[in-house]
Write a structure and sequence with these properties.
This protein is of the alpha+beta class and 144 residues long. The protein has two helices and eight strands; from the N terminus they run ααββββββββ. The protein is elongated and about 90 Å long.
Amino acid sequence: MIKYFLLGVFSLAQISFVYAKETPDLPQKKIVSSTFQKVPKTVIIKTKKFKIRIDKQPNGNYLYQSWNANAKITAKPSMIISDGEVVPDGSGGNYYFNFNNQGHNYQVWRNYLTDSAKKAPYTLVVYDTNGNEIVRQDAQVVKN
């Protein structure tokens, strides 16, 4: 009885090998981090001195608009920077929006993981043309 069982298993394995097809290499899909799935299409934040609105554009880049902190967001922006990008920071969900304007670099950081529960949800950091930090202000969400 055991002989017949083993013969059946062996035969089944042989038939499986005969009919097995080699699967072609499929193109590798780029793995999209869950970080990018959490990035909102529009963010409006307020620091001590500025209101900032960041919008995702149809081309996939981001648009930065800023006003004086006391100005209405319906007024004409004092600064507009286009072609910004989202840059992931680690695997915990933090990221920042990066914009360049006449040699100055504007970064709006999203602070998901921090060492303090009191840390602001966003931080604006501006670097001059030499890479020196000239502005660092925490920001609260006005509209997300």
